[in-house]
Every structure is written in C-alpha cells, then in structure tokens.
Amino acid sequence: LTCTVYQVHCCLFVSLAEQTGSLGCIGWFIVFLSSILTICLFPITIWFCLKIVQEYERAVIFRLGRITDRKAKGPGIFFIVPLTDSIVKVDLRTVSFDIPPQEILTKDSVTVSVDGVVYFRVSDPIASVANVTNADFATRLLAQTTLRNVLGTKNLSEVLSDREGIAHSMQTSLDDATDNWGIKVERVEIKDVKLPVQLQRAMAAEAEATREARAKVIAAEGEMNASRALKEASLVIAESPSALQLRYLQTLNTIAAEKNSTIIFPLPIDVMAHFMQK
After folding, report:
1. What average pLDDT score do residues 263-277 get?
2. Helices (H) and strands (E) in the chain, counts
3. What residue spans define the domains of the chain?
4. pLDDT digits (tens, 9 = 90+) for 83-110
5. Tell me, what's the pLDDT at 277?
6. Which of the 8 DSSP states describes residue 153?
7. Where are the transmembrane segments (predicted)?
8. Fold classification of 95-195 (topology level)
C-alpha cells in the first residue's frame, strides 16, 4: 500500500510539475508539500480535488497565482490541488444587454436620444480573466462610448435612415476593441431614435408642405393633360361639323337624364352658323 501511494504521489507530482512551469524552487516545494498532504488525507481531500464544469462553462486554473495551462479546462470533471489551485469559471453563452438612451449631438448639430442592444460572448476564457477585470462591465461601458462616437459622425437623415449601417460600424469597432479581452461581439442593433418635440413638429410641417406641393404639381399636370385633350377634341370637331351636332345632342341627352324636370328648347346649329362665321 505504501508503494502504491508513493507511485501515485510521484505520478501526481510529475503531472503538476509539467503543468506548473517555472514556479521557482519555492513554488515547486509548496506544490510538493500540497500534493503529499492531499494524498495523505485522500478520503477527505477527494471532495476538494474534484471539480465539475458545465457544458457551457470553462474553468481557468491558477496555481500559486499563475495560469496552469494554455487552454481552459472543461466541460466535465477534473482534479485540482486544493491548497495551491484556485479556479475561475467563465460562461461561454451569448449575453445581451441594453445600451441606455444616449443624448448625442449629430454632425449637423441636432440633439437626439438613441438606445440599442448588444449581443456578445466570451471566445477566449483565459484572456477574459487575465486581461480585464470585468469583461462584461467593460463591454457595456465601451458600447456606450462607441455609440456616441459613431453617431457623432452622422447627419440626422443618416441616423434615421441608415440604422443597419450604423449597427454594422458599431459591431466592427466593438469587436476590434474587445478582441484583447477575449470577447466576440456578435450583433448590434439600434432600437429607437427619439427627436426633440420642436424638431418633430418642424419635420411634420416640412413633410406636410412637401405633400401639398406634390399635390399641386399633380393637379397642374392633370389640368395640362386635360387642356391638351380638349384642344385635340376641338380640332377634330372643327374638321367635322356633323360631329359638333352629335356632341350637342349627346349633351342634351345627358342634361335631360340628370335633370328631367328641366324643359329644354333645342336650337338648331344651322341657325347659329351665320353668327359663327362672322
């Protein structure tokens, strides 16, 4: 039994030495003592050595303040040395958060209130733990400043019409800035753009004036087309006097059908021919 425990102790020490790297003599000595104590108290320390990580999590292991491996542990079960190792669990699932409404001055000196939503996830667990204090909080603050910087270079018309382009610019800027933090920004959306009340009234008045001007142009085009049709009709009637008489009779028929209480005395066109020649 003593030989078996000694062999297990040697194997464990060699494995720890390979993972630990350059801890120095003191660090190796502490790891050696910890592994001996763990093996001696094996029935008790087994509950402190076993760690379980979920499918959507990864564990970053620190041994005496140093990260043990180049790759995070998990998912599943693994062993640690209770006295020298500490773990930090990192969630790899996609996280979404709302950007609070930001008062932004656009390029054409208009103040608007814009909010949005950002979707991101941890792509490198070790970088998210070692390179930034709080990756989630830092990403939220950076999203607010990036929204201000991007919209500050846009005109009001671009802010209202080109939301997709603004979201793409924000995603690119955020992804580049958070790459060293092990964060991958998957998507950015602009939710709402709120304008001042006075500006809304001015835009409504401008839109109404534009519609009225367009209606007048359409009416003028209709009158012009109608006058051209009347001109062509008058030329046709002038070439054929019988067509004028038929048109006169058709007009009388229409008047008699609509107002049948009216008495009409038709006057032959031939009687008026002498006056029309003069």
Report:
1. 56
2. 10, 8
3. 2-91, 95-195, 197-235, 240-278
4. 778 889 999 999 999 999 988 888 888 8
5. 61
6. T
7. 26-50
8. Tetrahydropterin Synthase; Chain A (3.30.479)
